[in-house]
């Protein structure tokens, strides 16, 4: 084992750089905050110390492993190295776009950037790129960032609902720098006089900033001659980019526990998992999986040390990742896009998961994972999930208990799920944990939906399904909540109130009994009309609860209280 440490300006470091980002590293993750800070620091350094042209701004450490006859592997520092390359590419492309009017110095800087700091491709020497990205992003980074362009314009983003393509992070960083540089070069003085009046002046401004970056920014490189030592160093350092999350640390820990061909196999499994969950941060899915399969409950803070201690061998690592891979579709159905939900299991499971998503709950995920791992049937899974819906709706949503209080109990229940008998026991435990019917009913009678329309929607949607099992209004954007007595009545007295300022008016306005699901077009057309006019539209609705309102001859405080009582009574039977 050998370790070398050296501090170098970015000019020195990039000139000597020949490294690659391993394909098992997390993707590029710098966002607006990190890039803005980098650009602000660059301008500040230029303003304060540009005349010195010496190491002045510490751009943190870079950890690499360089085994004999192989390219250096960047273990820590890829965020900064990638951002530097993106910045230099934007500078080069800008100078290329004005090369006819900017003078020879600008052309020389373009060549210097290509040759010394980014690299290039040539028919004689092949690729000499300083930083090689691997995996899915490699080709995109080479073609869109490292290869010179004669135009200075933003990169298009890949758009797909519910997806976060890795290339978009690269493109967004480049586009942000393009916008920033454009604004900087077009700045004006207080009297609207341009600070950089022509292309020569703009090219000089760009050159000054680039010189400051290359001469004043410096890094400390820690180089190990083997990967394992590099990972150990990495785990004990903190970078200036996004804070390392437990998922990152677990990932590097796993690679430190395998060797040879196993490294590639682990990388493939990790990529497969990330391609499903569509996120570089695996912390959440790892934590819920851990709590579904281990008695030692882990918080986010304690996750890494617990996993590192228990997952010891290469076989343990493979088993752990295989388990996460199996539950990944369930995770996306619970937390991802609507398309992920609709691709998972059958409609009964989907409806239960939709309810949990609409209530913004996640603490039950260990139970979902445990059911998936034990290959529970759709009927078993839907039954357990609906029991969780009923418990959490009663206790957390209506009775205002803290959702986090169930994290440990749900994790313990998840670990106990092994067979059919354990599912029966789990259902008994979930039912026993619900607050009593009378307490639940009383809370519903007092419930005020102002600011909580999603909760009201949840209850009304449950009733619609109960009354007509053929209907599905889950996620239906054409169905809205209607105030039967409107917020701004045309004639307040027809509703039995003297004024909208009356305290009892507002109380009844937001009561559950005064709310109904209605088709959005009808909702718009009836607006603030009186009750008789509204009933004409209710009769045409495709939803039973709206049609049922036509049985009422009038609508006032008494009928609102009556319907609220009915809703509360029925809620006890379905939640």
How would you explain this protein's 3D organization?
With 575 residues, the chain is an alpha/beta fold. The chain has three domains: 233 residues, no CATH class; 189 residues, no CATH class; 134 residues, no CATH class. It is built from 26 helices and ten strands. It has a six-stranded mixed β-sheet with strand order 1-8-3-4-2-7, sandwiched between helices. The N and C termini lie far apart (62 Å). The model has no long low-confidence stretch (mean pLDDT 87).
Main traits of this protein?
single chain, two-stranded antiparallel sheet, 575 residues, alpha/beta, 26 helices, 9% strand, 3 domains, six-stranded mixed beta sheet, globular
Total helices: the number is: 26
Percent of residues in helices comes to 55-70%
C-alpha geometry = globular
Report how far apart the termini are. Answer: 62 Å
Main β-sheet, in a few words? 6 strands, mixed
Mean pLDDT: 87
Largest beta sheet: strand ordering: 1-8-3-4-2-7
Number of strands: 10
Strand content: 5-15%
Overall tally of structural domains: 3
Structural class: alpha/beta
Secondary structure elements and their pairing?
Elements: E1 3-9, H1 10-16, E2 19-21, H2 32-49, E3 57-65, E4 72-76, H3 78-97, H4 104-118, E5 121-122, E6 126-127, E7 131-133, H5 138-146, H6 166-185, H7 199-216, E8 217-224, H8 227-235, H9 246-256, H10 261-277, H11 283-293, H12 300-310, H13 314-335, H14 338-342, H15 347-358, H16 365-373, H17 378-398, H18 407-416, H19 420-432, H20 437-445, H21 453-467, E9 479-483, H22 503-509, E10 515-519, H23 520-526, H24 531-538, H25 544-548, H26 557-574
Parallel strand pairs: 2-4, 2-7, 3-8
Antiparallel strand pairs: 1-8, 3-4, 5-6, 9-10
């Amino acid at each position: 084992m050998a370790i070398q440490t050296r501090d170098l300006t970015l000019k020195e470091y990039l000139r000597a750089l020949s490294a690659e980002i391993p394909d098992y590293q997390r993707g590029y993750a710098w966002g607006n905050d990190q890039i803005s800070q980098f650009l602000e620091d660059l301008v500040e350094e230029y303003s304060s110390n540009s005349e010195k042209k010496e190491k002045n701004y510490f751009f943190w450490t870079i950890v690499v492993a360089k085994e004999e006859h192989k390219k250096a592997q960047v273990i820590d520092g890829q965020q900064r190295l990638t951002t530097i390359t993106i910045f230099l590419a934007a500078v080069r492309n800008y100078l290329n776009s004005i090369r006819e009017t900017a003078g020879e110095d600008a052309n020389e800087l373009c060549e210097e950037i290509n040759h010394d700091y980014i690299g290039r491709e040539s028919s004689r020497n092949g690729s000499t790129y300083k930083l090689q990205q691997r995996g899915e992003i490699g080709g995109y980074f080479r073609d869109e960032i490292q290869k010179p362009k004669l135009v200075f314009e933003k990169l298009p983003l890949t758009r797909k609902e519910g997806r976060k393509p890795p290339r978009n992070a690269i493109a967004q960083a480049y586009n942000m720098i393009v916008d920033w540089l454009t604004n900087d070069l077009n700045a004006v003085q207080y009297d609207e006089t341009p600070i950089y009046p022509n292309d020569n002046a703009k090219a000089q401004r760009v050159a000054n900033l680039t010189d400051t970056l290359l001469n004043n920014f410096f890094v400390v490189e820690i180089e190990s001659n083997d990967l394992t030592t590099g990972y150990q160093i990495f785990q004990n350092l903190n970078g200036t980019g996004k804070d390392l999350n437990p998922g990152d640390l677990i990932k590097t820990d796993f690679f430190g526990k395998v060797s040879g061909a196993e490294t590639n196999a682990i990388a493939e499994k990790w990529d497969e998992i990330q391609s499903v969950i569509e996120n570089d941060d695996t912390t959440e899915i790892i934590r819920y999986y851990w709590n579904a399969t281990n008695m030692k409950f882990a918080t986010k803070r304690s996750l890494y040390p617990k996993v590192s201690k228990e997952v010891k061998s290469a076989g343990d690592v493979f088993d752990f990742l295989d388990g996460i891979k199996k539950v990944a579709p369930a995770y996306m159905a619970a937390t991802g896009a609507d398309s992920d939900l609709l691709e998972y299991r059958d409609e009964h499971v989907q409806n239960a998961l939709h309810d949990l998503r609409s209530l913004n709950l996640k603490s039950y995920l260990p139970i979902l994972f445990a059911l998936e791992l034990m290959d529970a049937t759709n009927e078993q899974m839907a039954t357990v999930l609906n029991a969780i819906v009923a418990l959490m709706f009663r206790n957390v949503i209506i009775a205002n208990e803290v959702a986090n209080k169930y994290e440990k109990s749900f994790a313990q229940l998840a670990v106990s799920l092994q067979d059919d008998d354990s599912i029966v026991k789990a259902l008994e435990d979930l039912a026993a944990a619900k607050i009593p019917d009378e307490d639940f009913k009383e809370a519903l009678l007092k419930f005020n939906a102002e600011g909580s329309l999603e909760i009201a929607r949840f209850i009304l949607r449950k009733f619609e399904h109960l009354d007509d099992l053929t209907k599905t209004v889950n996620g239906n954007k054409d169905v809205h909540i209607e105030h039967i007595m409107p917020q701004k009545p045309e004639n307040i007295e027809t509703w039995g109130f003297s004024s909208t300022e009356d305290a009892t008016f507002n109380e009844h306005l937001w009561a559950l009994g005064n709310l109904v699901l209605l088709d959005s077009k009808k909702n718009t057309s009836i607006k603030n009309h009186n009750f008789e006019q509204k009933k004409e539209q209710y009769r045409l609705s495709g939803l039973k609860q709206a049609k049922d309102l036509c049985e009422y001859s009038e609508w006032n405080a008494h009928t609102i209280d009556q319907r609220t009582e009915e809703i509360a009574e029925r809620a006890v039977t379905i939640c």
